[in-house]
Amino acid sequence: MKAVHFGAGNIGRGFVGLILHKAGYEVVFADVNAELIDALASTPSYVVTEVGDGASVWTVDNYRALNSSTHEADVIAEIASADIVTTAVGPNILRFVAPLIAKAIAQRSADLEPLAVMACENAINATDLLKVEVVKALPDAALADGAIFANTAVDRIVPGQDRDAGLNVTVESFFEWAIESTPFGAVTPVIPDAHFVDDLAPYIERKLFTVNTGHATAAYHGFAAGVSSMSEAFSTPEIAAEVRAVLAETKALLVAKHDFDPEVQQAYIDKNMVRFANPELSDTVDRVGRQPLRKLGRNERFVGPAAELAERGLGSDALVRTMGIALEFDVAEDPQSVELQQLLSDSTADEFVTSVTGLDAAHPLYPAVVEVVRAHQK
Ligand SMILES: NC(=O)c1ccc[n+]([C@@H]2O[C@H](COP(=O)([O-])OP(=O)(O)OC[C@H]3O[C@@H](n4cnc5c(N)ncnc54)[C@H](O)[C@@H]3O)[C@@H](O)[C@H]2O)c1
Ligand SMILES: O=P(O)(O)OC[C@@H](O)[C@@H](O)[C@H](O)[C@H](O)CO
């Protein structure tokens, strides 16, 4: 069995690559980072060290690595004969990998089983976004039948790694990979560590609007308070209180929308508060807050749940307050943070809200977000 995985970064090596390796796949990593790909290509194995309850140490081998920028044709040929293609490149990058997947689907022998395509990104229905781009790049849309596109929800905190760690990755011991089963029919891909579910929406929304909403809340409040590590942010009582406040709001939505048992959702929140504060994971507010314009997007971790709460007449004060605090995120190395600061000073509050959050002026959440943006403009 062979899997081609785009994005040999933190989650690529420390989660998707590891799980596919454990499932018995030969993994071909494809990435545009030449230094990373050269290191992988010249190294027979790397080590994933888990920290936390039930931690293990895993050695990943039986992989190859290709530079998808300089060796595009090789990557396409690998995908054409693979069983699975996965991505962990970031939602905004999917459109750049899609043409390679499209060319591979067009080249694929009709004798082969359809290619399983799964985007492993923190976004609602990321595989659907990828599919749109793949179909756009196909010479004939009917060729899309040569692939099965399935959305997934991936959960494991993999912080940035020490430079001297090389290819080795330290990760939390917890992980969850939920994959929608419906597109596959009766025969799902062999991935024992993943679980296949009929309806992914409750899983991805619970994950994104609890884990990622809570995480980003701590990052933005932490940044504003001058804190740099995530464990310090979570051990600061005022910041932990802000996280609990946003998660109480997203809980109200998840319970109302997906009929979750409130006690079960509260237990999920409490478990995540412990995960977040894990002092063995050296994670930073800069990583967790990265790409703030993406995180303030319409279907993302703040505006997504806050908009639905407003539509239901439910409160979202803590989410809106955190959107305001997110506007203070100013990290010179993060291009989106630089753009955010520029937009804030160049735009009116209405222009900013319309372009960044995608909220319509008639939406019930719109006035509160405009007000918080205005309050944060210098
Ligand atoms: N790190 C986590 O804790 C975590 C957990 C769950 C999901 N995710 C999601 O996984 C994705 C990747 O996150 P990460 O933390 O691993 O980031 P990362 O920056 O460590 O890795 C991303 C990799 O993608 C590569 N890349 C960029 N453009 C590419 C292209 N055109 N073709 C091929 N490769 C390309 C980069 O060189 C990099 O190696 C994001 O969507 C993130 O939200 C991350
Ligand atoms: O990857 P992002 O930028 O969408 O979000 C940053 C973190 O919240 C995220 O990477 C988490 O560590 C991860 O989603 C945990 O499963």
TrEMBL record:
Keyword Oxidoreductase: yes
Domain Mannitol dehydrogenase C-terminal span(s) in chain numbering: 199-341
First and last residue of the signal peptide: none
GO biological process: mannitol catabolic process
Keyword Oxidoreductase among record annotations: yes
SUPFAM superfamilies (UniProt xref): 6-phosphogluconate dehydrogenase C-terminal domain-like, NAD(P)-binding Rossmann-fold domains
Pfam family, one: Mannitol_dh
MF (Gene Ontology): mannitol-1-phosphate 5-dehydrogenase activity
EC number: 1.1.1.17
GO terms for cellular component: cytosol
The entry's keywords: NAD, Oxidoreductase
PANTHER family: ALTRONATE OXIDOREDUCTASE-RELATED, MANNITOL-1-PHOSPHATE 5-DEHYDROGENASE
Family classification: Belongs to the mannitol dehydrogenase family.
NCBIfam families on file: PRK02318.1-3 (NF002647), PRK02318.2-5 (NF002652)
UniProt name for this protein: Mannitol-1-phosphate 5-dehydrogenase
Organism, as annotated: Conyzicola nivalis
GN (gene name): mtlD
